[in-house]
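Late entry, evening session. Most of the bench is empty. Finally got around to the prediction I had been postponing all week. Sequence below, unchanged from the version circulated by S.P.
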Amino acid sequence: MVRTPYSLAVGELDLRWGVQIDARPLRVDGVGPDDDAVAAYVAKYVTKGAQEAGAGTDHRLTAWEDIHAVPVTDHMRALMRTCWRLGGLPEHAPLNLRAWAHTLGYRGHILTKSRAYSTTYAALRADRAEHVGLDTTPGTATDGHWRYVGSGHTPGAALLAAVVAEDIATNREIAREEREVPR
């Protein structure tokens, strides 16, 4: 069992694990698992958790009210709200949890690649660059700026899509009725 430090958000908590436990202390003095082992462990459980959870959403949240509007499960919404609340506490300010509430507080790639089991993001980027004819010189930096602009139809496009869907349904109904008429 481990007792957490006191926090305004949750007080003190007792953390316990089940019978299948592999607990090794992480220390800054280099004693214990190396950085790669820790990263692999964290990546495994972040990926497993993200897979089961739906991994949040792909755009940042700018206000508490935004959490209500994202298309996620109630459980994911509760996790986002928890990130938002904890992000407002001074002791958690360095974590920037509000900026990362949309990814449930995780700031890295939600999916990982490992040389031992798959490929790496560097290899994927190099292959993609070669495929599109870009320079693949090692050490080349690529800077891209993306922003979320929305999803789905505009109101006008939604109206047109509804009319088209209605026409298709009507045509299918007429065709079905024609097939049923004895000749």
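Two things to note before I forget:
The CA atoms of residues 92 and 139 lie 35 Å apart.
Strands lie at 2-3, 14-15.
Will write this up properly tomorrow.
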